Amino acid sequence: MTRLRPLAAATLSFAALALAACGSSGGGSSSSSGTGSGGASSAQAGACTKDKLALKTPGQLTVATDKPAFPPYFIDNKPQNGKGFESAVAYGIARRLGFRPSEVKWVTEPFNASYAPGPKDFDFDVNQISITDKRKRAVDFSSPYYTAPQAVVVPKNSKFASARSLADLKDATIGVQIGTTSLDAVASVLAPSKQTKVFNDSNDVVTALKQNQADAIVTDLPTAFYITAAQVPGARIIGQFSAPGGDRWGALLEKGSKLTPCVSRAIDRLRASGQLQTITQKWMGAAAGAPQLQ
Description:
The chain is of the alpha/beta class and about 290 residues long. The protein has 2 domains: about 5-150 and about 245-290, D-Maltodextrin-Binding Protein, domain 2; about 150-240, Periplasmic binding protein-like II (D-Maltodextrin-Binding Protein, domain 2, 3-Layer(aba) Sandwich). The protein has 9 helices and 10 strands. The strands form 3 sheets. Strands 7-6-8-5-9 form a 5-stranded mixed sheet. It has a 3-stranded parallel sheet with strand order 2-1-3, with helices on one face. It has a two-stranded antiparallel sheet with strand order 4-10. Helix 2 (about 85-95) crosses helix 8 and helix 2 packs antiparallel against helix 9. The longest helix has 14 residues, at about 260-275. The two termini are about 25 Å apart. The model is unreliable at about 5-35 and about 35-45 (pLDDT under 50).
């Protein structure tokens, strides 16, 4: 994810964010191949037993994220409580690696520092970090655990606020940023009858939403959570939908980490068991204010 997290976001009400967050809406449709120094397919099960893991602290799994940690990824700014999408994913990985919750230690790692080159003080980091070729030159990534879908955001008192399906948006004037996967999604999935309003940058899209220049805007779901919680009071997400070009997130590890294939294997097992999809639906779906639009 390209984070839209200015300092002002630290003052947000966590409760407001919880009510509000790049296949399916979760990691279920993502490729299960590893994206770091070694894929899950190269990991032998015996090398991923707890006693053989290359950990920063023997017997302890050290997991990093930023602070403050926002809903719906973390709840009450407490990653250790297991509540929230990425907290639940992290503990799911830990269990697959053989760790009890009491054996997981959380540490703080600023978002922009996480993918900088050099040694890390954590075993892996979960923090809405997009898997990109540029970042992979400096760090390892696990198999993706989430692929961000698109979301529809409406301004306060929009006549389309009651839309429950993609068909309900057919006659809406949609606003979107130029050159984004969201623009492609509007054309290929929504295909509205009215001409789409295309804006130069994200600030213009937010302004359009504030000034009711469009009936709705389309952006990736994480950005939609932020816009409705922090930037446009009264605006709300009416739903999400899957579209080509989703933004993939992975657990981040130190470059060349021997733990990378084991974390990938744990995520692949979470996906295969259906648990990853269950976690995603719970924390990134209707409960977070973003039901699926069909």
